Amino acid sequence: LKDESEAMLTVFDVKGRLLNNFRIANTVRGFNTFTFPLADSEGKPFTSGLYLFLIENSYESISGKFTVVR
Fold first, then answer.
1. Distance (Å, rounded) from C-alpha 4 to C-alpha 28?
2. Which among 40, 51, 53, 59 could bridge 19 via Cys, Cβ 3.0 to 4.6 Å?
3. What is the pLDDT of residues 24-46, one digit of tens each?
4. What Cα–Cα distance (Å) separates residue 38 from each residue in 17, 60, 66?
5. Which of 4, 3, 9, 2 has the alpha carbon at shortest distance from 56?
6. What is the SS3 assignment for 8-68?
7. Which residues contact 28 (CB under 8 A, 6 or more apart)?
8. DSSP one-letter code for 6
9. In a 3-state reduction of DSSP, which class is residue 7?
10. What angle do CA 54, 70, 53 make, to 5 degrees?
11. Is residue 51 within 8 Å of 19, Cβ to Cβ?
12. Interacting residues of 26 by C-beta distance below 8 A, sequence separation 6+
């Protein structure tokens, strides 16, 4: 991230459906590591597969993908 601020992590499935939002309170400038439960907003665990994420703060948006292997 380019600057320190609060951020939001949003997770989607490959069809674009919103699965969960996570508030990230303390980000620092540069590289950050986030740990979050691999479950949707109702607590249902993610199945194996590809997922998309969006991290947004006041200054920028970063998107990417990750794989869950169970």
1. 4
2. 40
3. 988 888 888 888 999 999 999 99
4. 15, 24, 11
5. 9
6. EEEEEECCCCEEEEEEECCCCCCCCCCCCCCECCCCCECCCEEEEEEEECCCCEEEEEEEE
7. 1, 4
8. -
9. strand
10. 5
11. yes
12. 4, 6
Residue/partner pairs of 12-20 with CB below 8 Å, 24 or more apart = 12/51, 12/52, 12/53, 12/54, 13/49, 13/51, 13/52, 14/49, 14/50, 14/51, 14/52, 16/52, 19/46, 19/51
Q: Which two tokens stand for residue 20?
A: 């969960």
Unique residue bearing structure tokens 């993908």: 65
Mean pLDDT of the chain: 92
Cβ atoms within 10 Å of 6's Cβ, excluding its own: 11
The amino acid sitting at 68 is V
At position 64, the amino acid (one-letter code) is G
User: Which one-letter amino acid corresponds to residue 27?
Assistant: T
